[in-house]
Structures are given as structure tokens and as C-alpha cells.
Amino acid sequence: MNRVFFVVFLGIFIFSGKAFSLCDPRFVNPVTDVCWSCAFPIKIGGITVLGSDMPDADALSSPVCFCPGPAGIPVPGISVSFWEPYRILEVVSDPWCMVAEGVDMGGITSRTARGTLVGTGYGANSPHYFAQAHYIVFPVWGILGLLTDIPCVESGGWDVAYMTELDPLWQNDMQSLILNPEALVFGNALLQLACTADATAAAFGLPRDELFWCMGQWGSAYPLTGRVATGNKILGAAAVAGRLLYKLNRELLLCDRAVSPCSCVQTPIWIKSHYRLQIVRPKANTGSAIRIGEPSPLWEAGQAPPLEKGTDNFAFIVFRKVNCCLIWTP
């Protein structure tokens, strides 16, 4: 009888993944789930139109800008700068869980693919966190049809562009050296000690871009995998999101819209201060965004209530800094 009960129970567990799933996928509402104040400050012609308490990065100070026109002749324009919500980074312990798209794909749940969390309590020799990550094209303003007349604002709809479950380099720290062999250099204790300065800078303002191998209190940006040295799953999720953001820059799948007012520039060495992350899952924080490496005690409270479903899966809306030259055309 017990054997029959065990077989029935096992069958239910295997074939009804939804009943036992911790994924809890919910589609991100581009109106109600977005931190609209995180797009500020907005500056036009060097004048702040809408201000913000959050530190700003590399805004254009001159009211007039110039970009190449026909035949390479510089054409004048008006400088505009703002923060654009344009991507979603999912960090999930449940593989194939599209937590911000409202879809649980199930799929491979091998020991390697599943997320892990080893805490700092009794018997934990080496705390670490591992998760899969997804890169979602989510141009909020384009989806809503807002500001589409500004050429620097991305248009189009949402799309799933990258899933680390399909990337073997994400699963293995040693194999990832194929993409970033310099991780061997930046793994030494002396260079990691410099990350303290980055953590201090991120706590009171913007992270230090010259310390590109650091993510402040979140730890090292290397290796570019889903494994980070922390027993805190909320901090770990933010660190994995930062890792994926750097990895995508390194693979030239992202470009930086704040380097030049005339074009989007490839930055294989990321500029951390040009990004903000808004937590949108498991709980949407529509009041603020976090900087890369910002100490977790400043923002993690209440983000993953322990008794609620799906709190091992996170999603972040990426705000990028945009410096744009609005060209005048007769």
C-alpha cells in the first residue's frame, strides 16, 4: 500500500509541475509596475525640466550639440538627457521560469541548471548563490507609444533575447574564462580590496566606473557566470543581474546610449554608472531604483517576504542613461 502511494505521489509530482512550482510568473504591467520617477532627472537644453533625488550620470551640460549630417557636415541640435526603462533582467532559481512574462516553461531541471543558495549559518563553509538569468527586450516607452518621436527612444515590442540555461559558459566559472580571461588577473585579493571604495561610492552616489571589475558590496563582476559569493539571495539576485548586464556588454549585445549624443556606442568594458535597476519581481518597487553595487541594506527590506510564493525568482527593469542630440531639420 505504501509503495502504491509512493508511485502515485511521484506521478503527481512529475506530471503536474504547476501544482508544486515556485515560479509564480506574472507579466510586468508597463504602466503600473514601472518606477516612472526613475526616468528623472530629465534635462532639455542643459536645463533640468524634471528633477530627482537620485544621482545623475554624465548628463549633457551644453544646451547645443552637433552630430554628423549629410556629407559629414555637423548639424546642430538641442541636447536632451533622461533615463529610459528599456530591458528586463530575470534572475531565477527555477530554470525556464519567465517570472516577468507570465510563463512557466518547465523544461530542464537538472542539478546544474537549478539555482542554489548556501547561507552563512552554522556549518556553511563557503556561502554562495547561483541562478539562471534571462535578458528580455522591454522598451516601455515604445510599447506604450510614448515619446516615439524622439529618435533616441527605442521603439518596438517585447522579446526574449537571451537565456543562460542555453549558455554553457554561464554554468561553469572555468569555462567562462574563454570569454573573459582577465578574470584571472582581477581575482587577486589586492584588486578586490579596491572594491571597498566602489561600495562606498555606490552608497552615497554613483559607482566608480574605473573599477569596472567591482560591483560594490555585491562583490566581484568576475567571473561572468551565475555564481556569486553571498548567502543573501536578494543581494545575490542583484549581483547576478549585474553580471549578466556586464556579460551582454562584453559580448557586444548591448550598446551605451550615454557615451555619445549621436549614436549608441559598444562598451565591452561596461560603464556601471549608466545603469539603474528597479526590482519588479517578486514585488514591484515603483518608488526607487538601485545603483550597481549599492549596499543591500539600503534597498532590500521587504523585497522577498519569506512566506510568499515565488520569492526565489527575481526580475529587474533596467534603466539606461540616454544622452541625445535632437537634430533640427528644416
Describe the fold and architecture:
The chain is an alpha+beta fold. The N and C termini lie far apart (85 Å). It contains eight helices and 16 strands. It has helices at residues 2-15, 17-20, 140-144, 168-171, 183-186, 189-193, 195-204, 233-250; strands at residues 42-44, 47-50, 64-68, 74-92, 97-98, 103-104, 116-118, 128-130, 132-137, 159-163, 227-228, 255-256, 265-266, 275-281, 290-291, 313-327. A hairpin with an 8-residue loop joins β12 and β13 (265-266).
Topology:
Blueprint lengths: L1 H14 L1 H4 L21 E3 L2 E4 L13 E5 L5 E19 L4 E2 L4 E2 L11 E3 L9 E3 L1 E6 L2 H5 L14 E5 L4 H4 L11 H4 L2 H5 L1 H10 L22 E2 L4 H18 L4 E2 L8 E2 L8 E7 L8 E2 L21 E15 L3
Condensed summary:
The protein is α+β, with helices and mostly antiparallel strands and about 325 residues long.
Q: In angstroms, what separates the terminal alpha carbons?
A: 85 Å
Mean pLDDT: 86
Please describe the biggest sheet, giving its number of strands, its sense, and whether it closes into a barrel: 9 strands, antiparallel
**Order of H and E elements:** HHEEEEEEEEEHEHHHHEHEEEEE
Shape: globular
Helices and strands: which structural class? alpha+beta
Strand percent estimate: 15-25%
Give me the count of strands: 16
User: Into how many domains do the coordinates divide?
Assistant: 1
Low-confidence stretches: 1-21
**Helix percentage:** 10-25%
The radius of gyration computed from the alpha-carbon positions, rounded to a whole number of angstroms, is 21 Å
Pfam families: TraU
Protein name: TraU family protein
InterPro entries: TraU
